[in-house]
From TrEMBL:
PANTHER family: S-ADENOSYL-L-METHIONINE:CARBOXYL METHYLTRANSFERASE FAMILY PROTEIN (PTHR31009). The lineage of its organism: Eukaryota, Sar, Stramenopiles, Ochrophyta, Bacillariophyta. The keyword Magnesium applies. Pfam families: Methyltransf_7. This is Methyltransferase type 11 domain-containing protein. GO terms for molecular function: metal ion binding; methyltransferase activity. InterPro entries: MeTrfase_7, MeTrfase_capping, SAM-dependent_MTases_sf. Signal peptide: none annotated. The keyword Magnesium applies. Keywords: Magnesium, Metal-binding.
Amino acid sequence: MGVKTVLSSIFFLPGTDSFSKNGTDYPTKFRVTLYDSLKRTVMIMNRTIMKRTFGAWMATIFSSSMNGATAFALKFAAENVHTPVGKDGEGAYTAATKGCFDVIDMATPLVLQEISEQHINPDRAFHVADYGTADAGTSLGLLTKVVRSVRKRTSGDDKKEVVIHYEDQLNNEWKSVFNHALGNIKVTDAYNNEIDTPFNLGGVFVEANGVGFHQQCYASGSIDLGVSFTAMHWLSSSPSSLKGSKYMHAARCLDGPPEAEKLQAESDWYKILTARSRELSPGGRFICVNFCVSKEGYFLGQTDVGSSMWDSFAYAWNKLAQDGIINEDEQLGVSFPNYYRTTEEFLAGIERCPDLKLVSAEEKIVRCPYREQYIDSDSKMSAEDYAKTFVPTTRTWSHSTFKTALSDKRSDEEKEKILEQFWSNYEELVAQSPETHGMDYVHSYLVIEKV
């Protein structure tokens, strides 16, 4: 029985008006999205994981809501786009990604300003969603201020309940999320300042969601404030357009990003916005701080200061090939499954959503705190120590992509050994001229209102 026949017998085919499950008729609006998602996913399943029976898989889908089923299908197809680094529960991302604290600090006045102006319902809890939270450590300080600001707006009501919804992908470090959110792991910023958790304020409730921000994650009209920092550049699936090319990332292509990457990013951004427009309550705000290509052509790790991080990646990776550690296919097999949109691309997506209104948009650069501290310390830290301190912040988000480029014929242990050499190559390069190496952040700071 083919994929089309199976889906037809269980669901419906495009062109029908509805389908039934357990005596319930589901409307037309699920028609194309769910059918196409399931079709693509089943094809992937047939090719790669035949050990799972189709019947068991379909039973899993039917056990969720229709929105959950669509998300499950998309998540299944895209589950290997990005994998967190580190042992779940230890909070490795926050410990090694200190620049994100500065990015969020720069956004904090925007967030608090919107809270001071938006309507707050006095008769129910205030709901905040942190989309793409990673291990939840870097946003703790902001969310603590959010809770206090909301309570200040409600006549200083210290008992005003606030619900914080942490959202990320299914394979996220969820133990780390709760260890950070509940205060089980101490969090410090780039300057060793300890960050408190909003949970300690009392009357704050913590929840988690693994659907993925490309889909609707929460009930319609339920979210009062949505925030997202350094997350929505990840694509729902990877076109892998750069495999076979010397370029690792779409932003590096001299002739502009490949069309497949651009179209995927455009489609994903629209999905993200339409999902948020459903979730937000009337007058609710969504503050999205996302990687961008600035009007000057700057982007993450490649600005007007220092060496390009992407040149350094290329050097360290190509050295593996020069040393005979990886073959040519692996050398040219890196294709980052994320996309740095221009501000114009962000705004074009917002204009397509009639229920959303742009409040403000601004591009900002946050300098690499590791490099800034090294320079300010007058080189009291050795070059080698700086390299070992800085390089992990580039590793947290890129390691899984480099690993994906290695041949499936290699064991996981062999892949990790190769990657350790790759990161060692990078550290050796940084140690040669530490003051020139860093990872500047380039973001578009967007404030969006549900009308």
